[in-house]
Design goal:
This protein is an alpha/beta fold and about 775 residues long. The protein has 21 helices and 33 strands. Helix 17 runs parallel beside helix 18 and helix 18 packs antiparallel against helix 19. The longest helix is centred in the last third of the chain and has 23 residues. The structure holds adenosine-5'-diphosphate and zinc ion (2 copies). The site of adenosine-5'-diphosphate has 16 residues, from helix 8.
């Protein structure tokens, strides 16, 4: 008999092991779909029915059932309610994810299901359960095509609409919707024509978000048009050629090797990816390219479509659910050979994957911040080992973890591209000491060197990019008499002041009040605005430019931040605006540090390089170094030489000095001993156990109890070789009205962190009022 392991689509730890069901031999009972690994199935569950996913199928003789199974109690699957969403490899990956990241198995299986949802059981008001299909699915267009008697057909003179339809159809097939847009109501005329055999109406699948010409669909998105220009393949530089060689031998080895492509900005890493993908496709395999969400612009997608045409599928969260569904289905059909997407693209139904590329591998966004809290880099490496694929990690500022792996693990290879592909030098970086500026009387947020550099470059028609580092930095009110800072009542963060509208807002939860005129604490009228948001910088910059000789009010300032990029396509529109201008300034937050490639940018300014340095987190220095290095790389990418000015109050800090001299070794010499001494990655592995809830006392006492229990558990397993640090409030101690505590666990690199923690957390009964989440290999400890 055939037995199925089914994981119920109910995300609780309690239901985390698969249930066994019988698979009936009676094919008529099964309905439309086969019961296969990866399908959603309707199963009996207590007094009702539930949806689950089949994760394994096994044949067993009736007298040889797995231990603990009682044949008389086994129930049969009612029927499959979907085709397979994943295969045995996907099921194995979900299992691995749930164990490694201590996440409910159903949440891991869910990663593999199509965008727009899966069938589910819903309860009616009368208490009945019924099956509800997802609302997102295929859409068809109705097309008008010539019928058998089209050639001979002559509409009667007074049948004007019929005549117009026939006329239109002579120029080619078209959609009913197009006809209706042109001619008004056409259904009557079409019916008549269809009855006479002059036309036929056909339903055809529409692929949302695809370039025109694919599957009969018409592209609806801006990325369709311009991106389809085929690109020519340049001759590789010798550095690129040897990088490509390293990738090809990693592919050939077939045991999941990793190549870290450590190349400065503009060194032509993307060209190496493209040619490695080409070789992968030629070998009959497929490729997946992960890009940080924010750099997944039509420009980026265009580089891949330019080379691989309509075999490229795209997946990211800014696409509509319908588009994502179609792309997912396009991948499942096997027609897509290259998938370009954000981290979740790893879980799309690609077959025969030969290469996984992760661009900007140091980016924090590769770590998911809700369960399962996976890191895409680690998942990719696991997948590649299983399937014999190769992984390419690209970055100008590789993560310390990846650099360490290259030094320690023989399956990791580091390849350097120290020069730009066009042979141009890296731009000169000048560090401006703002403390010194302030001391000598300058009160502006633009130092004198930055002001004059802006004036010089803009006056001759060049462009500038200005970065306002906003992490840990926003405008707030401070009472000069008593030191009071208005804070969000629900989150332990100061409220951000907005000039336009004169209000205070919490950027975590949206709480908003009018800005007080006097201090709510002591009544003093001396409430000073501290810090600067992009709006304020923009206003000051406007004044600066208007007064600069040869610049003036005609030079546009394009501001890019969370406020201006909210709408769909706005990010791209702003970049196009900047590209189209002559002299112009692009002013923005972190989102401008990546992927911009404009030829005429000759000046990059970092307004405040050190705000992130002050964040109380072990990765603060690494992030600062990477950010300054990345943004510096936006200057002087083509013919014109570039220069970079970095304003900071900590001019001597190692990450700043190192970034300014492109000296990673200097940064690592400063950083690594600290990491080793304080026991942080890459010298240990960590888990961050978050405890949060509305009741501060309950959170604190649960955290303390958890610490005691977990400490005991860990000592039982591994003695005293691990650290289970005492429970403390998080840096962000209060967020959206919840109190947050955490417990940090550190273990030696060679220990199996998850395997030790897993039994503890699986056995733990969830608490009703206090939440607990385990973050394995956390990206930060905030
Ligand atoms: P990276 O991804 O390392 O920042 P890109 O791949 O964007 O670098 O390349 C930078 C620029 O150099 C691009 O304009 C690209 O077209 C160009 N380029 C890359 N490789 C070559 C090459 N071998 N010959 C000429 N130009 C190249
Ligand atoms: Zn006060
Ligand atoms: Zn808040």
């Amino acid at each position: 008999m055939k037995l199925a392991s089914v994981i119920l689509d109910i995300p609780t730890q309690a239901l985390d092991t698969p249930y066994t069901y019988l698979v009936s031999d009676d094919p008529t009972a099964l309905g439309g779909y086969d019961i296969v690994v990866g399908c959603a199935a309707l199963v009996p569950f207590g007094p009702r029915q539930a949806i689950g996913f089949v994760v394994a199928l096994e044949e067993h003789a009736a007298d040889d059932l797995p231990a603990g199974l009682n044949l008389s109690k086994l129930k049969a699957i009612v029927r499959a309610v979907s085709p397979a969403y994943f295969d045995e490899e996907g099921a194995a990956c979900a299992q691995w994810l749930s164990e490694r990241y201590l996440a409910p198995l159903s949440s891991c299986v869910r990663l593999f299901t199509p965008p727009g949802g899966v069938p589910r059981m819903v309860r009616s008001r009368e208490g009945y359960w019924r099956l509800e299909e997802p609302t997102v699915g295929e859409v068809d267009d109705r097309w008008v095509v010539p019928g058998p008697s089209f050639a001979d057909f002559e509409p009667r003179k007074n049948a004007v609409k019929q005549g117009a339809i026939v006329e239109a159809l002579r120029a080619g097939e078209l959609r009913v919707a197009e006809l209706a847009a042109e001619l008004g109501a056409v259904s009557g005329a079409l019916k008549t024509l269809e009855g006479k055999g002059a036309v036929r109406i056909e339903r055809r699948r529409r692929m949302r978000g695809m370039p025109s010409g694919v599957s009969g669909g018409v592209g609806s998105r801006e990325e369709s048009g311009s991106s389809f220009v085929p690109s020519r393949k340049p001759l590789l530089t010798s550095g690129q050629a040897s990088a490509l060689g390293a990738v090809e031998s990693a592919c050939a080895s077939g045991n999941g090797e990793v190549v870290l492509l450590d190349g400065v900005t503009g060194s032509g890493k993307t060209e190496v990816y493209l040619q490695a993908i080409e070789a992968t496709l030629a070998a009959g395999r497929t490729a997946c390219v992960l890009v940080p969400e924010i750099s997944l612009t039509p420009q980026t997608v265009g580089r891949f479509r330019g080379r691989f045409g309509d075999t490229v599928a795209v997946m990211h969260s800014r696409m509509g659910a319908g588009e994502r569904y179609d792309q997912w289905d396009f991948i499942r059909s096997g027609a897509a050979r290259v998938v370009v997407g954000a981290r979740s693209a790893l879980f799309t139904p690609m077959r025969n994957l030969g290469l996984i590329v992760i661009d900007e591998e140091h980016e924090g966004s590769y770590k998911q911040d809700s369960a399962p809290r996976y890191h895409a880099r680690d998942v990719a490496v696991w997948m590649a080992r299983r399937s014999g694929a190769a992984v390419v990690l690209g970055s100008a500022t590789p993560s310390i973890e990846s650099l360490h792996a290259c030094a320690k693990d023989e399956r990791w290879h580091q390849v350097e591209l120290p020069e730009r592909a066009n042979g141009k030098p890296m731009p000169q970086v000048q560090v401006v000491d703002m403390a010194h500026e302030f001391g000598s009387g300058s009160r502006s947020m633009f130092s004198r060197p930055l002001s004059s550099a802006l004036a010089e470059e803009l006056a001759v028609g060049h462009k500038a990019v200005l970065l306002l580092n906003q992490r840990g930095f926003a405008k707030f009110l401070l009472c000069r008499e008593c030191g009071f800072v208005p804070e969000c009542p629900s989150c332990s963060t100061s409220l951000t002041f907005h000039e336009r509208g004169n209000f205070l807002i919490c950027h975590h939860c949206g709480y908003r009040i009018a800005a007080p005129a006097t201090c709510p604490e002591c009544g003093s009228p001396y409430l000073k605005k501290f810090g600067a948001g992009t709006q304020r910088v923009e206003a000051d910059l406007r004044v600066l430019l208007d007064e600069a000789p040869g610049v003036g009010p005609d030079v546009p300032i394009v501001r890019m931040d969370a406020d201006t990029t909210g709408g769909k396509g706005s990010h791209q529109r702003l970049l196009e605006e900047f590209a189209a201008a002559d002299a112009a300034v692009l002013l923005g937050t972190q989102m401008i540090a990546k992927g911009l490639d404009f030829e005429d940018v000759t000046l990059v300014g970092v307004i405040n390089a050190d705000t992130m340095l002050k964040l109380p987190d072990y990765r603060a220095s690494e992030r600062t170094f990477a950010l300054v290095e990345q943004v510096a790389g936006r200057a002087g990418r083509a013919e014109l030489p570039g220069r970079v000015l970095v304003q900071t109050y900590e001019a001597d800090a190692a990450p700043i000095q190192a970034a300014a001299t492109y000296d990673r070794a200097l940064f690592l010499r400063d950083e690594l001993p600290k990491r080793r001494l304080l026991k942080y990655p890459p010298y240990v592995r960590m888990a961050n156990i978050l405890v949060w809830g509305k009741d501060e006392g309950a959170v604190r006492s649960l955290a303390a109890a958890l610490h005691a229990d977990l400490g005991r558990h860990v000592r039982n397993y591994v003695g005293n070789s691990w650290d289970v640090l005492a429970a403390t409030p998080c840096v962000l101690a209060k967020l959206r009205g919840t109190y947050r505590w955490h417990i940090v666990v550190k273990c030696p690199l060679e220990s199996d962190l998850s395997a030790v923690l897993l039994p503890f957390f699986r056995a733990r009964k969830p608490d009703r009022d206090v939440n607990v989440a385990v973050d394995v290999d956390p990206d930060d400890l905030l």
